[in-house]
User: Fold this.
Amino acid sequence: MSKFLKKSIWVFHLNTGSCNACDIEILDVLTPYFDAERFGVKLVASPRHADALLMTGPVTLEALPKVINAIEATPRPRILIAMGSCSVGGGIWHDTYSTIGGVRELLKILKEREIEVDHVYYIPGCPIRPEAIIYAIGLIKGLVEKKISSKVKKAVRRTSG
Amino acid sequence: MIEHIVVSIIVVLSIIFPTILDGVERKIKARIHSRIGPPILQSWYDIIKLFGKEQVMPRNSLHAVMLLILLTITQVFLIVYTSVSIIFQITQFDIVVIIALFIILQTIFISIPLTIPNTFSVLGGSREIALTLVNEALFIVIMGFFIYYTGITSFKQLTQLSPTVYLLILLLALFITGYVSSGRIPFDIAEAEPELASGLMIEFSGPILGVFLLTFHIRRFFVKFFPSILFLGLFIHTPISLIIAGFITTIILWIIYAVIAAILGRSRVDLAPITLLKIYLVLIALSIIGYYLKV
Amino acid sequence: MGKLGFIKILVIAGEAGRVTRRYPFKPETLVSEDFRGRIEFDETKCIGCGACVNACPPNALELVDKGDGTLLLKYFIGRCIFCWRCIDVCPTGAITGTRDFELATNDVSDLYEVVVHERAECSECGGKYSTIRQKEYVVEAVPITESYIDKCPDCRKNKLLRALERRRGGVYE
Amino acid sequence: MDISPILKNYKKIVESIGKSSFTHVGDTIYIIVEPNKLRELAEILYWKMNCYHRTCVGVDERPLNGHFALYHIFGDDTNGLHIVVKVYIDPEDPVVPSITDIVPAADWCELEAYDLLGIKFSGRKLYRLVLPPTWPHGVYPLRKETPYNYRPSVKIISGEEIGESHDKAVVPVGPYHPALHEPEYFELYVEGERVVDVKYRGFHVHRGIEKLGESRTTYQQVNFLAERICGICGFEHSVCYALAVEKAAKIDVPERAQYIRSIVLEIERIHSHLLWIGVAAHVLGYDTGFMHIWRIRELVMYIAEKLTGSRKTYGINLIGGVRKDINEEKKKEVIEKLEIVEKDLKKLIDTMVSVPELKKRLTGTGILPKSEARKLSVVGPTARGSGLDRDIRRDLPYAAYSEISFKVPVYSEGDNLARFLVRVEEVFESISIVKQLLDQLPRGDIMAESIEIPERKMGVAAVEAPRGEDVHFIITGRGKPYRWKVRAPTYNNIPALKVMLRDQALADAPLTIASIDPCFSCTDRIVVIKDGRRYKLIPNKGGVVLYG
Assistant:
């Protein structure tokens, strides 16, 4: 990512059928206590102006074509930020009939249609709290270290044999 | 020699500085919102970033792009011409030339969104027309009165002026047209975000959007700079001090306008032109009365 | 003030001051000690019973039988709704809640946490069942004969049925 | 209140209809009528008895009695009664008379039953409302034979194919529009800057959890599911679901838990209304107001986290009680913070209404006359702004609302300003309610001791959410609900937008749309959970099988 892209990330809010909790937290991040604008983040009204798409929700079938259109309309380099449990892993609706189950399925569909996404970020949370969004912005800008990593733990048996 | 240096500095600054002032405005707004706000150079970061983005051409938008380039060139030319003509008189009719250029600029500005086949863009354009019909038309009328009262058509002649009440009233009206032309709340109905999704610039992206924003900032600078010079010309009679004072006044005005914009709400397309028309007509009438009473 | 009352907003803004929290530059957040964040597994306590898997509303916790004698308790943070129902139901207190919300990543595989359990082997048929840790937990909790718990549920059932058959026939070994 | 004369009156009405049955449990009346008598009864209930229409529910009862069933739920708010009218529908040819010409409020729920269950309604136009246009015909997700995780192959079609118009005179508001924050699609037909007609294509947030329960969700898990119907007023849904189940199963919830529920419900109302006031200011271009309202709201969010453990989707509600207790220290902190909120908010609201543009644009725009409001059975602040005096908290008290006193603000102008003022007053009322509740908080348990939920019982519960009344209807099953129907408040309010937007300036359209505080994720959910058992027929005793 170029230096100036990191300094000025314009985001378009792409609700793909979320419950609103993440969406109002996104708005909340712009308000005085958190103030995402100090990182150069600005909410824009058209995907044509956007650098990053804040995706919330598990992608419902009804919203899918519109989501693809919005992603296609975003000029490259484009960043897709999956926000909240629904978006990252499908959440509580990960296998219902009218959703496709989150960003991973969406990326597969995008790949089929040869629409490229340059960077993908994942922010789990239900809902994502504003600090988590700030942390993610920090991660994109390189201000903070990534803290989470996959863990494999082995259960310890007490007795042998 | 010093004049050349000053004029070059002012020309360069009047292209670079508006975008920084936009950053200042965002910072002030943030303060009124009780938050920290972006760095002062943020608007420049935005524009530089936009130049690095992919250019997605909107459908059937060749006209729009050409008009935009024309707009940018004219705008830059206008600001350079204004700065230079304050110090070196270019023609006898510098002020008239500037008015004419500004009107051409406004015409290009309102025709850009109309050439883009997007509902919001067209709506934004037609709103801009409604506003222009009152604001820029009255700008010409006010400047007409100014020239009629004083008989001056170039900045060089400003030295002959002395402050009178009717001129000050006229200049107040001119400052208001400047405020409206700068597209601030409550008169940003053309790009009203919640209604029109950024209205006239909805389809632009990447470098084109960057150019548009840059031009827009210069335009905001110009509409404050020009009335400031006319106003200060009543008091300051040396060109170099006038241009420097004009520059500083513009910055102060920018800050005042930013505060005003932050504490008001957005007007509506059927309310704004009528409200403005009332204000302008009252101010012009007052100045006419003042002119005949010689105050 | 009357018509110019709206200017008072400047006073309000002045009184409020700048309220912005400096996070992430300084650890100033609004996170209270009651916040429910990521959960953590204590692999020394987890017995792989699956109570948390049953309670989890979004299936963020799953038990996966690898087929090679291990049973995986998979926690996918990307689907977790942070309700902490698993903590309520865990019989051994192996799951603890944290205040951790710094979970953003650019790689979805970072969001998996796995506890690997060894499956118990049936002393009779050699089939895999439950986990060794769960077996140990039951033995600790209830004084029960090793030989009974050593068999898989199927063998246990068969043994019972055989015993019943024998009893009905009145023949004792 | 002596309820029996009213009950007698209802009984008389039902008997006059002819072949029908009448039962009464608690605050709910169950009536079963012949399909051909439905319209007659609906007219009497809706217009003569002055009942509101809450919703209608289609149920696939073929495994139980071989029929489809349709339940129309009416509400008599003045007497605090739910009235459930049931008709049986032939499974081979599922046709039932439509009542939309008598009860306009029933329009959408009939279409929903048509979409999801294939129940046809005679005497009205039927079209697809809830399911996406790509959904295969003849597959009804709510029928038993359709598995819960059935997914049609993904086919992407363009806007033209589903008849989205690209006419110049149409202003598309949505699906991604900065005023909405949710993917919904309004087509505003304009002449110049005037709106002449509105078309709504919604249900982008239809996540359909219909058959989810078949495989995984149990009674207690549904609480968390209900909470995610809507992220803003989720706790209301969760409580409403719990109340419905508790009513059906006759579970006694400890008093302290009732109080805690009420406290959190009111905290949620405060945050939701503040959010709305802020968004309204933003829509009107008054960003400073938006920022300061949200600054004040942050304290409320902090309180919510303190009391529940999460800023939103609180996750503390279970059937039978709550999970988290309130101690003295928290009590003190909440009251302290609320006092700051009250003080700051008063000052800010005074300043906000003196902004000239704000006042000019709120007054006289988006008018919903009382008669139209009544016809469409609108709810919540939208109803109270149009002079309909209805509030479930007062009319059918639940949780701890019967223990405290509060005022219900009603304005008769029906414009955006009226709805704005209703919400502002409600915030202050809610702050006083929370203080009262915290003062009187009784000691005791927060969870019922034993929770046993019998099968095939019916429960209807209503909760006054920030946007209006939530209605949850439940039929219990084994280990999980057999049928769960949710009626969100926005569901009743969206049809009113047609009236409100017509002949308005386009510039006011986003504000007017926002003025009902639409919550599309509530509206679109159709969260229904069904029991997993397959076709076990239960003998139909004399054509009348009643749950409850």
